[in-house]
Amino acid sequence: MERITLAHGAGGKEMEDLVKKLFQKIKVVKIPDSIGLDNFDDGSSVNVPTSSVVISIDSYTVDPIFFPGGDIGKLAATGSINDVAVMGATPIAALDSIVVEEGFSIKDLETILKSLANVFESENVALLGGDFKVMPKGKIDKIVITTTVIGYLPPNHKLILDSGAKPGDKIIVSGTIGEHGAVITALRMGIETELGNLKSDCMPVTKVMKIAIKNGDIHAAKDPTRGGLAMALNEIAEKSKVSIIVDEEEIPIREEVIALSEMLGIDPLALACEGRVVMSVSPDTAEDILTALHDAGYRDARIIGEVQEKEEGLVLLRTKAGGLRILEKPTGELTPRIC
Amino acid sequence: MERITLAHGAGGKEMEDLVKKLFQKIKVVKIPDSIGLDNFDDGSSVNVPTSSVVISIDSYTVDPIFFPGGDIGKLAATGSINDVAVMGATPIAALDSIVVEEGFSIKDLETILKSLANVFESENVALLGGDFKVMPKGKIDKIVITTTVIGYLPPNHKLILDSGAKPGDKIIVSGTIGEHGAVITALRMGIETELGNLKSDCMPVTKVMKIAIKNGDIHAAKDPTRGGLAMALNEIAEKSKVSIIVDEEEIPIREEVIALSEMLGIDPLALACEGRVVMSVSPDTAEDILTALHDAGYRDARIIGEVQEKEEGLVLLRTKAGGLRILEKPTGELTPRIC
After folding, report:
1. A residues 64-93 near B, CB within 8 Å?
2. Pair A11, B334: CB distance under 8 Å
3. How far from B81 is each of A41, A157, A306, B121, B304, CA to CA, in Å?
């Protein structure tokens, strides 16, 4: 099997040959007049349709790197697209930076790159360029991918911030929560046999955002990744200086995720999603958004709660048993390297 | 000593507290109406003065992380600024993504972050946001930082590409070469006592580029990092479909770098720089650029050669002994983790 050597990362001929070979195997969206992957220049250049550029960076360290529903390449492309999308922007271009361990399989690297490129291509996001580094064996665990996605705010669109939730808003989640976190945690605990058909929910949320923006008025939105729904709600409540009350009964969670959570002793509300949005929307448009999402196939989308004025920064959970408890920000290790 | 724990990377309360604490200690350039570090939102937003956005990403894995002349934070900010600057663009904003090993000293992290922030601040580049991940002990060697810098092309400025060199052009380097590579290699070989006063040349090249653009006509420019001057010249020759001939006699190299290169058995022309530019400029403006660089304090800037028509992609070195040899792209390991 062909493996990565330190020479592949040295910036000389071997690196150039490898990177060119790998990138010939993937399909890349081209933007006219842009300077991108073909150029292998110091940086890249792209014309943005509006002056308002939205940009996000994330490093992906997920362990294991291949999992039901995706791999680190799919995750790295999806995650940064989602960060731009939940701000109300249209992702347009991306950069990736790969740091790989000496000895890593070049075939696996190709598989991962193809996953990453497939997401960008299907989302019409141009992969403009990147970086490639090799660390000696034992100095990094397999592979870390960092992606930057840039987008623009279409004319007459407003930026959707975590701080925009208003009293009276309804809280919508776009689908069942916690699958990504449950899958990765189960794999790490060595109980993958318990997963059944459960897969990571890893997928772009651009379509969800487009539908919601078209059909209603979104005041705040987040993709609940590390820290899960619990962290996302707390961040919105805190930054918007409101309280949020959610109904446990209404939160869509798959039976398998509940069963795994009980087995592992973890709160499903703290489990990472990689393809969901939680949004705070104006009450008069909440049902319209929900119907549009259902019609588009997002059948698990639900109104799970609402925003209240009193008690700034507090998130309350109305439990299935009928009680009310504070839903805190998750603390402790959770699962490291979930994304 | 306070150390990084896995909880610091879990995306919950501990991470939020640490990141907020660290970022309170650094000074950050603010751009009016931008959504940046203060917001801790999913992504960031900035208005760019022109529609032409220039962007670069790089992961920095340098070992050791502290070295004479800088540290991984300074390098991570400088390196990505330089990639944007050598394209003729004005850097405006940045993102950083830090992946750190469990057990890493929080004090060292603070030092590194301050170095990074100092570069961005002194260059008037707004640090808009980032990511922070922790990998378990032994799964990553200390710290890897990825930075993205975005810039814009000022009105009436053209993008400077590697492919723009023209026959007749003069080749200029902005200063002595190979110091960064020599310093890191010496540290890694355990012969730091041989370094004397030698320091990494790590510094932004924005001022060099500004002076050169103002005083002449740059057809191609690169910062010669991994692979050094040899790789940079080969890339320009190949992409511009020209040949380049340089005079060994004219290439500015410090005595200490030559001595270290001889001791280590490496070619100084393949040693990385982190604060130099090699540019191909129209012959009628070469002297003007050189004079302006000298006047601005870049006293080691030199015209080292010229561009020829014949033999596409070839780089020739006229040696001090008077012979002519092909200067190949560097091959082999060089020094891994040089940047």
Report:
1. 82-84, 86-87, 89, 93
2. yes
3. 14, 30, 44, 12, 25
In terms of DSSP bridges, do strands A143-152 and A90-101 run parallel, antiparallel, or are they unpaired?
antiparallel
List the pLDDT tens digit at each of the 339 positions of chain B. Answer: 899 999 998 888 898 899 889 988 888 898 988 999 888 899 999 998 888 999 999 999 999 999 999 999 999 999 999 999 999 999 999 999 999 999 999 999 999 999 999 999 999 999 999 999 999 999 999 999 999 999 999 988 999 999 999 999 999 999 999 999 999 999 999 998 888 999 999 999 999 999 999 999 999 999 999 999 999 999 999 999 999 999 999 999 999 999 999 998 899 999 999 999 999 999 999 999 999 999 999 999 999 999 998 889 999 999 999 999 999 999 887 778 999
Residues forming a β-bridge with B148: B57, B95
Amino acid in position B224: P
State phi, psi for A209 to the nearest 5 degrees.
-65, -40
Q: Please state, in angstroms and rounded to a whole number, the distance separating the CA atoms of residues B215 and B212.
A: 5
Q: Which residues of A touch B129 (CB under 8 A)?
A: 55-57
Cis peptide before B252, with omega less than 30 degrees from 0? no
Which residues in chain A have Cβ-Cβ distances shorter than 8 Å to B93?
A: 55
Write the CA distances from B111 to A308, B25, B108, B115, B117, integer angstroms: 42, 10, 5, 6, 10
A13 → closest Cβ in B95, B331, B338: B331
